[in-house]
Specification:
Mean pLDDT: 82
Number of strands: 7
Order of helices and strands: EHEHEHEHEHEE
CATH class: Alpha Beta
Helix content: 25-40%
Number of domains: 1
CATH topology: Rossmann fold
CATH architecture: 3-Layer(aba) Sandwich
Low-confidence stretches: 132-137, 143-153
Distance between the termini: 27 Å
């Protein structure tokens, strides 16, 4: 992808700014739209142009990231959009639920901008290369650049 149209569902303003800063290091051509809560994410997807990739925080008001993921994967017009979970949670039950719901990747939010840039670059490069649906290329990113096979696969 040379140009990225990204939807980031993230309720925390600092996490949003951190993400935008890191993403800007990857691509000069991008547009990041922000949904401040899960309901806003779903409304955006119903009323706007389809994004190239969606990043979902799990813990958001009004609708959780998993509820948004379910909406996306149960909607024929949206189901092919790659979804990357972007969360502080490292709990295996959340990771499992995300992959079972159809997430392509699960990123545990790092606290280092350089590391986030590298993780985003790796994940987006793999999406570009694979073109596959979730299930075959599921990985977990745990505050390191190495992408590991997802649990239970």
């Amino acid at each position: 992808m040379s140009k990225y149209n990204v939807l980031l569902a993230e309720d925390d303003a600092d996490d949003y700014s951190f993400f935008v800063e890191a993403f800007g290091r990857i691509s000069a051509e991008y547009r990041i739209e922000r949904a401040k809560h899960g309901l806003e994410c779903i409304t955006y997807l119903k009323t706007h142009e389809k994004p190239d990739v969606i990043f979902l925080d799990l813990n958001m008001p009004l609708k959780s990231g998993l509820e948004c993921l379910k909406f996306i994967k149960n909607n024929e017009a949206l189901e092919d959009i790659p979804v990357i979970i972007y969360s502080t949670s490292h709990y295996i039950k959340h990771i499992d639920a995300a992959f079972k719901g159809g997430a392509h990747y699960y990123i545990v939010k790092p606290n280092n901008a350089d590391l986030l840039t590298e993780i985003l670059n790796t994940a987006l490069s793999r999406l570009d290369e694979s073109g596959e649906k979730p299930g075959k290329y599921n990985f977990v990113v745990r505050n390191q650049v190495t992408l590991e096979n997802s649990p239970g696969r």
